[in-house]
Design goal:
Length: 203
C-alpha cells in the first residue's frame, strides 16, 4: 500500500509532471505511428494498450490517431487525470484500474502495447510476471514499444533494463527484438538516460 500511495500522492499534488511525465508526446511514439503496422495496415482502428498510462498523455495521442486505447494504471488519481485529459481532447479512452502484473485485459486482444517508465519501476523478481502478461495480451504480430532506464538510479527509484535482461524476459522465437536505442526520458525537472526497444510477438 505504501508503494501505491506514493504514486497516488504524486498524481494528486501534480509532482508527476515534474518527475516523470513527458512535457510533450515523445518523438518515438510519433515516429512509430507514421509507419504502418506489419503487413502494411494502418494503425487507425487498431487496439492499443498503455501500461502505466498515468495521466493519459500518450493514450490521448493514440486515440486522436484513431486507435482504440485501453489505459491501465494502479493509481486511481492518475486515471481521474487521464479521464479529464481525454474529455478535454474530445476522445474516448477505456481506462482500467489494475496492476501491470495482472493486466485487466483480454488475451490476444492488443495490436500495440506501450510502456514508458513502468517496467523500470518493477522489482526484478516480479518482471517475469510482467512480461508474461505482455505476451498474453498481445496478438500474434503485435508490437511492444518499451522505454525504460538503462541503469539503476537510487535517487530516481528505478532499476535499469539492459540487453541481456530483455533477451531473458522476451526470448526468441516468441519475440523478435529490434535494436536497443539510447533515449532520454524527459520530464520538466530533467531527463533520465534510458533505452528504447521495439519488440514484436511472433505469429
Amino acid at each position: 500500500m505504501a508503494f501505491e500511495s506514493f504514486w497516488d500522492r504524486c498524481y494528486r499534488d501534480g509532482s508527476h509532471r515534474e518527475h516523470w511525465e513527458a512535457p510533450a508526446v515523445p518523438r518515438e511514439l510519433v515516429k512509430l505511428l507514421r509507419k504502418p503496422q506489419p503487413g502494411g495496415r494502418s494503425w487507425a482502428g487498431a487496439t492499443a494498450l498503455d501500461v502505466g498510462c498515468g495521466s493519459g498523455l500518450e493514450a490521448v495521442y493514440l486515440a486522436r490517431a484513431g486507435l482504440h486505447v485501453i489505459g491501465v494504471d494502479s493509481s486511481r488519481p492518475a486515471l481521474v487525470l487521464a479521464r479529464e485529459r481525454a474529455w478535454a481532447a474530445g476522445v474516448e479512452l477505456d481506462l482500467r484500474h489494475g496492476s501491470a502484473l495482472a493486466l485487466p485485459v483480454e488475451p490476444a486482444s492488443i495490436d500495440l502495447a506501450l510502456d514508458r517508465g513502468c517496467l523500470h519501476a518493477i522489482d526484478r523478481e516480479d518482471r517475469p510476471a510482467y512480461t508474461a502478461e505482455i505476451a498474453r495480451v498481445l496478438r500474434p504480430g503485435g508490437r511492444f514499444l518499451l522505454r525504460g532506464a538503462c541503469e539503476d538510479d537510487d535517487d530516481q527509484g528505478v532499476l535499469g533494463i539492459d540487453a541481456p535482461e530483455l533477451d531473458h524476459l522476451f526470448p526468441a522465437p516468441a519475440f523478435t527484438r529490434g535494436p536497443i536505442q539510447p533515449i532520454d526520458l524527459e520530464a520538466r525537472a530533467g531527463s533520465l538516460p534510458g533505452h528504447l526497444v521495439l519488440l514484436t510477438k511472433s505469429s
